[in-house]
Write a structure and sequence with these properties.
The protein has one domain (13-120). 32% of the residues lie in helices and 14% in strands. It has three helices and four strands; from the N terminus they run E-E-H-H-E-H-E. The radius of gyration is 14 Å and the shape is globular. It is an enzyme of class 3 (hydrolase). It comes from Malassezia pachydermatis.
């Protein structure tokens, strides 16, 4: 994790599911998070209902995955900087994104096909 590379860590992914979702389409959205503050974590931003139009980069990304939701894609948005907001920790961020994909695919209640098409940005 961001404190000790030999200790496992947990993080959060927020799964957005449209009413018309296809059980074989998943998008992982590694959204812009330019801060060492956990206040900028995607899950916190989504849960608080912050106005997306306050930041052009964030609003562009959120409009992009909103379009995918309308097309029936399930979208998973991980807190890819981890629980300590480890800004610019590429390896940690990569693992958090891959773990978010695995966790979302294995979430039985959602019922995604294990051979789902998975795309990300």
């Amino acid at each position: 994790n961001s404190i000790d590379p030999n200790t496992p860590m947990t993080t959060v992914t927020t799964v957005l599911v449209p009413d018309n979702y296809d059980n074989d389409k998943l998008v992982v959205a590694g959204v812009y998070e330019d801060s060492y503050s956990s206040d900028c974590a995607p899950s916190k931003r989504l849960a608080s209902g912050n106005n997306i139009f306050k930041n052009v980069a964030i609003s562009y990304q959120e409009m992009f995955y909103t379009t995918l939701l309308h097309e029936g894609w399930v979208v998973t948005v991980p807190d890819h900087e981890g629980p300590h907001s480890a800004f610019t920790s590429g390896r940690l961020e990569g693992h958090a994104i891959l773990d978010a994909i695995r966790a979302t695919l294995k979430y039985d209640t959602l019922g995604l096909d294990s051979n789902s098409k998975v795309v990300g940005y």
